[in-house]
Give the backbone structure.
Amino acid sequence: MKNIVLIGFMGVGKGSVAREIVKQSDMIALDTDDIIESMENRRIKKIFAEEGEEYFRALERKVALWLQKEVKGTLISTGGGFFKVPNLSKIGTVVFLSAPFEVIYRRILEHPDAEKKLRKRPLFQDVERAQKLYEERAVSYKKVADIIIDVQDKTISDIAKEILKKVK
Ligand code: S3P
């Protein structure tokens, strides 16, 4: 069975959707940021601060090659920039979670842990910059996706159901 690879912008809900898919199916979930943090034994924020973004991107490419080679039938959630790895389509069915920037930003702000959610994301320190990054990436996410799911105004449960139905 093929992997499902969730891609999309920071804060769009890849982690929440992954956890819900796990609930609704017998799949096991992996998260590329979590893998990188355990490989490095330090947080993403620290990796960016101490080594820079390019070092982090190289780790993403390393994880992507491992996933392609070793992982099957798994739900894989990814960091917002992971979609750029050259072998993405070889890892599994790529599902893009799509929502307007305003909706994503509001979702983060409404979270009880909003401050922490923003603090841990080095590329979401400045709203205008984050919005620019969103605009730069919007087309590319769509290009690499096998399936596009509009997540606006849908419950996490319905999004998970829709994905499981579409990948079958
Ligand atoms: C990034 C998104 C983050 C994390 C890193 C870089 C990005 O993951 O991988 O901070 O380039 O968009 P989330 O999408 O889970 O925030």
